[in-house]
Amino acid sequence: MPVVEPFAISEPLSSMGRVNLNVRLAPFGYAKDSTTGRSYIERNTGLHAVLKGMKQFIASNGTYESGHGEKPLQDHYTGDGGDTINTEFRFDIDPTLTIEKAITPRFDVGGNGFFKSATEICDVDLLISDKDALGNANVFTDPSVGALRAAWAADPTNIAKRAAFWQANSMTGDNARERPYAMIYPRLTTKSNVYTVHVWSQSVLKNPNSNTDEWTKFDENRDRITGEYRGSTTIERYLDPNDPALVPASGGAPYDAVDTNAKGLDPYYRFRILSSKRFTMQ
């Protein structure tokens, strides 16, 4: 019986399945429409998928039992007059607001231009949505927190507004504030290794009677198109951990990234075609 080696779920330095944090495509993505102010080419659909469903734990100052009651998803009796307070502590992160207000400004003039490492997502403010999953307005224990959230969302670059929001929610532990980043970071990359290349190529035949200076040009009236190919090819760039250049078979010293004289890994990357498809014209 033939034996087939299973596909490795995770390979060294592989970014397959991860979303590239650099959503603005260079160079055309850095040009903007003069009317709308939006970039011409941005691929932020993947970021929407990463941020969708992410929640931030928030416990406002004065929250009953500091948000650690036995039934945190139900209303609690305050002990003062029998009133109840809202016990919603996990609020949706707004993907659209976070991308437009906190992520894409990094590419503009005055920003970093691009993300060098996926760890830089930890420097980005995750802006809270003003509505819950059902479309209802978020209700904070302290009504003033809603106003602080709106002020912060309107100007994420204002450090004072961010500080004011979290000072009003100082019962939120650092581990709770950092938890969304722990979920988001593994899903991101800044160095994609899988590309789909779309091709439209033609073979041409020059007119034998063309002048010498015309052989570098295509004349639609005199030259002919003899063939055409349209299709797409998915290519993966990868590292082979058993590459002799990294692990010499002769027993030499293997590649050591810590070595001050070590070269970058770029010369050791290989390419393989994952799929190829030809488009047929009907």
What key attributes describe this structure?
282 residues; alpha+beta; 2 domains; 3-stranded antiparallel β-sheet; two-stranded parallel ribbon; 5 helices
Brief rundown of the structure:
The chain is an alpha+beta fold.
Task: Note down, in words, how this protein is organized.
The chain has 282 residues and is of the alpha+beta class. The protein folds into 2 domains: 19-189, no CATH class; 194-278, no CATH class. Helices cover 17% and strands 18% of the residues. It has a 3-stranded antiparallel β-sheet with strand order 7-8-9, with no helix packed on it. Strands 1-6 form a two-stranded parallel ribbon. Strands 2-5 form a two-stranded antiparallel sheet. The mean pLDDT is 80.
